[in-house]
Specification:
heterotrimer; A alpha/beta (490); B alpha+beta (482); C alpha+beta (103); A: 490 residues; alpha/beta; 34% helix; C: 103 residues; alpha+beta; two-stranded antiparallel sheet; 3 helices; binds magnesium ion; binds zinc ion
Amino acid sequence: MLELTAGEALARIASGELDSQEYFDAYAHAAAGDELGAYLWTAEAGGKGSGGQPLGGLPIAVKDIFCTEGIETTAGSRILEGYRPPYTATAVRRLREAGARLLGKTNMDEFAMGSSNENSAYGPVRNPWDGDRVPGGSSGGSAAAVAGRLAPWAIGTDTGGSIRQPAALCGIVGLKPTYGAISRYGMIAFASSLDQCGPLTRDVADAALLLREMQGPDPCDSTSVGIEAGVELPSRADLEGLRVGVARDFSHEAEGVEPGVAEVFERNLALIRELGAEVGECELPHAGHGISAYYVLAPAEASANLARYDGVRYGLRVDGAEDLVSMYERTRSAGFGAEVKRRIMLGTYVLSSGYYDAYYGRAQRVRTKIAEDFAAVFERFDLIVTPTSPSVAFKLGERTKDPLSMYLSDYFTVPMSLAGIPAISIPGGLAEPAGGGPELPVGLQLTAPAFAETRLLDAAHALEAAIDFTNMPPTSSASRPGAGGSAAGS
Amino acid sequence: MAASDWEPVIGLEIHVQLRTRTKMFCGCELSFGDEPNVHTCPVCLAHPGVLPTINGQAVSYGLEIALALDCEVAPRSIFHRKNYFYPDSPKAYQISQYDTPLASGGSLGDIRIHRVHLEEDAAKLIHVGESGRIHGSGASLVDFNRGGTPLVEIVTEPDLREPAQAREWLQLLRATIKQIGASDVNMEEGSLRCDANISLRPAGSSVLGTKTELKNMNSFRFIERGVAAELERQRALLDSGGEVSQETLHFDPRSGELTSLRSKEYAHDYRYFPEPDLVPLAPTEEMLSAAREALPELPAERRRRYLAELGLSPKPANQLAFSPELAEFYEQAVDAATSADPGAVANWVIGDLTAALREAGVDAADPAASKVSPAAIAGLADLAAERKISSTAARQVLAALVAEGGDPAEVAGREGLGQMEDPDELESVVERALEAEPEAAAKVREGNMRAVGPLVGFVMRETNGRADGGEVTRIIRGKLGL
Amino acid sequence: MLPLPRITDVIDRDQVLHVARLARLQLSEDDLEMMASELSSILDHVERISELDLDGVEPTTHVVALENVLRADEPRPSLPRERALEPAPDPAEGAFRVPSPVV
Ligand SMILES: [Mg+2]
Ligand SMILES: [Zn+2]
């Protein structure tokens, strides 16, 4: 039962082969036995839930960055420990209204800042493919839960790759929609001009199902527009007539791409040609500067977004402070983890007097150039393909000492976030990690112009069928070496 | 350098709370004087994940104010985040406009307007003294009811030269915004707040001296006094060879003292950057013409019309034009009057009527709310102009109107206060007066006109005040051969 | 465009301390040193954008081409006060209590 995609489960529930409550309970039990550290909170089995249509009472795991009324929401941070929001995020509300039931809140890098899920205040998440490795981040809990049979599907957020990269590292599908497609209301802000909600699923059709229910304008989010043309469920079996662009210096040939990842990418390219697409070379001359621009803009916005955690209205306050400033400083220093502090510092610095033009102003212009690059490519191509991540899942602790090397994991995903365009990661195959060992998933990233989600999903669907990846880790989560132990769980 | 050789340079920064129903960025209702924290929501408490949404009515009011101040509305303006930590700022940033304000480059009267922009108000912080938990220091309570109230900030160019001019100009601004209906503009309640930037420079120089900022003076009187006190302080400093240092000052109206608001906290660095949660404002032609059409006749234009077309002198023209309620009442009275001229009607409205209302303990600022109608004041002015009623009698009629309303001619008739129509009757009363007060008559005959009082008093008593004082004096002089 | 300040050797301990104060973060002596070196290495990478010719390029603040998204001035229910104060670390007298700012 836990091997089914959500779409398959829905079909069986509709035909009476599967009982919706039984299905929910099976997952609630699985989630309660989580040994990956994927969940921070899980729903009780047996609880009655509405089983409305079209999502038929299916359970869904929700990243702990989405506010859920009355249910603890921490964004992976100590500073929000015990915080129970007085309202629910629009995306979650829409899923509930569409008949989905909240299965649990998933672990994440604190305030979505990280690419390994090691920055959670509530312990790391383990990769279901290898318990000694990271699931990626920041939506690491969501990705691990879906890959590890602890949830049929999940939602997460993507600011510079936080859905796509963990999806790639866990061998599942992860979609970052066009900026503005889904309301950000109730999604705890990291970098407001980049944050976007999206699905993490077992196949492309499931991603389309969730996107279809969540997208749409929201009066509570001035920057939300929805996808005007709507979202069609993918049906394509070939790529006939599609022009697919590959940028040489922004693909498998880029510096730092693991040989295994490059190999899988080349195999995927051959398959794309076989499916009838015309593959051509394109140029994204500024994409390589994406990380630089991103690590100015995102921390700058974050430094303001995280200033509200001040011990006054909710969340942690460190007592014993004699005056206001020391109350602020003690509270924030105790409540935030090292990576969050680093980014607040970076963001505060680049906005501070005398540096704005040199950093922020310049980064905004690089952002313009990157968007222009994509626009130019899309005049000649329908899609762009790249690897999702330069490497397969790395070992826990491997990159924590070197922030910059961690930041470079998002090399291929950040430019799309800066341009606000949709991109999806699908499993492209398995590859041996750089240091040797059992094979691990490699993600293939497809990118389309703004609001062309239907085209993107269609192509990903055709490719997914041709790649025929088995996106379940070979063993069950319980018997994996290295699992359990120090991983903090629900 | 002699004291008189310094020229004051004054600029004002005004914050106006808009009279919308809801807050700037959320749907909480505006309130004044309610229990603390009863008008809050996740948005104005800055809970995690919330987003602001712009109140359209606040933008409309902003545009109306900008147009009333003859400003150029920016084709595109954006909001910024102004970062600072303080308990009255729940997000730890204020959403405001920075390098692209809603409008700029206007004027009101002789004073140029630098910019007009939209922003949100802070919450209220109440100091409550020592708290039980935190020994040795005080505690404050935060009330978020006011937090997020829409504000329009208006910044003038440093065109003002005198404290009194600053007060008068601020009154004109207040009247203008009141006329638009965009705000209650009540200084005591804080819906109109004013800071002043003050400096001195050598007369004739165009270089600006070091300025100080005088914060939050909460009445028109305090503005005049505060600015005067600060100019005095700067003058003394400069005259003794000292230097003005850039600082923020607070004026205490009770002691008349200026205190420096030197914060022990870290220096400000607001780290402005564009607010990513809001999209730009780009007022359409439709929005602009709606704002234009919503504008009533404004005080400056009204004053010009009173001077040029109604022939009022500057003082009553200002007084009427700067008060929308008085002006409205006055214009209805002018329209209703048949023989009294606009100047006479003005005197009745701002002189006698205001005094009579005050005496009766009625709100004199809004005569339309009293029992006296504009038509009644017009009728009374007409009776006086036609000399059908004496000024003493007119005052009695007015008192009756204030007390119970009605028509002035009717009141005058009923109370027997009509002017004496028969000249022979008045002559005979005067003759009786000369007989009854021989001493006074003798003094007047010798040319001492100040002695006329007892004679006039006699006539008034005899006629129940219906006689016209001027006429009585004329007859007395005639009888005594003067 | 202004010349980009050299940062690698500029972001020293004192500057980190200044930024930490602006951000209301308290850093230990060790943290300060570490932060200075980490920020320097990140900024060193970031600095690569100074090689680009960006003259005449408009800055992007929003990727969605929207304007005038306005809300009708209609009241929406506020939170009951008890709910608003429920998560407060130090509620008192219907308000949020804080240590007094030092003025
Ligand atoms: Mg202001
Ligand atoms: Zn509110």
